[in-house]
Amino acid sequence: MGLVANLNRPGGNATGRSSLIGALAPKQLQLLSELMLKAPLIGLLGGDALIVSDNRDLQAAARTLGQQLLILKAGTDDELEKAFATFAQQQASAILVVATTLFNRRIEQLAALAARYALPAIYSLREYALAGGLMSYGNSIGDGFRQVGIFVGRILNGAKPADLPVEQNTRIELTLNLKTAKALGLKIPTALLVRADEVIE
Q1: Smallest Cα–Cα separation from 161: which of 14, 17, 18?
Q2: What pLDDT score was predicted for residue 112?
Q3: Predicted structure pTM score
Q4: Per-domain residue ranges for the chain?
């Protein structure tokens, strides 16, 4: 995005924390395939930030898993409704929702749409599973806030943002919602349950 010169020496007046949202999508596809053993078509819902390189990585991951992707973008509430209707019409087995600012402000709406169309979905934030989404695999918001607080403390104590490396988030959480799984008629494999950081009953 051009905000910093590089991660180790940002330069300028900006530093911070970089999430792994795009990099986690192939692993999210794998988790869906573990849950849905027969999932030939996976819907992928993203925003305008879903760049070409991410698409290539996702397409490669899908091919490895024997899946096809139906990629749709949404930037408005109407487009969200249409996207879920299209996923259902095209008989997607499940969907992967890539985190965007718009989506993260509509967590309950996205969980409700997935429930209305009976689409198993994986999201990037735990908050989606808490709102009724099936599962999430992604960065910890709490850990991110803690890291940002450390940055603020360093800068207030005289450090220059240009000298503070941009940190990669390393804490990844898997959250499963058993109530939603039951409503969808899905049995979550024991191997997934054992790996989960949190299971919502």
Answers
A1: 14
A2: 96
A3: 0.81
A4: 17-200
